[in-house]
Amino acid sequence: MADHQEASVTLPSDPASVSAARKYVSSVLVEWGMPGDAEVADTVRLIVSELATNAVQHTLGQSPTFTVDIALDRDELLRIGVTDSHPRFPKRLPAAVQQDNGRGMVIIRCLAAECGGKLSVRPTREGGKTVAIELPWTKPMQPVAASPGPGEA
């Protein structure tokens, strides 16, 4: 595998784009060798869904698109960032127990940490922001050929 691989997609800030972002990242990860049914693949899909949802819901119509960037460095570090053009950084919203929103960044941070990764937010030169995760790349397991048992050949 190459020392560095990258993929990127720009989507409209529309609720339908959340699913498109998730499917795009899933297909790239499979192409790079991560089994689609791996537990970490499910985690990454959930994180991408949360990041894309935030880019759509919390830019208040001021970001007509968002971009999902994926990079894999030396088969060791997976980076996924979602960039929008809204200048406001995400913040934890007060969330009552009954509310269905306001906990996305907490969820993302916890999921990344459970995988040994981290969450970061940085401004872009254009005045927007990128919310990104870094995760250790789990090398796909290769099937091990079973050794013949006693009496088998």
UniProtKB/TrEMBL annotation:
What the entry lists under PANTHER family is as follows: ANTI-SIGMA-F FACTOR RSBW, ANTI-SIGMA-F FACTOR RSBW-RELATED
Q: What is this protein called?
A: ATP-binding protein
GO molecular function, one example?
ATP binding
Give UniProt keywords alphabetically: ATP-binding, Kinase, Nucleotide-binding, Serine/threonine-protein kinase, Transferase
Domain Histidine kinase/HSP90-like ATPase positions: 11-132
Which domain of life does the UniProt lineage start with? Answer: Bacteria
One Pfam family matching this protein: HATPase_c_2
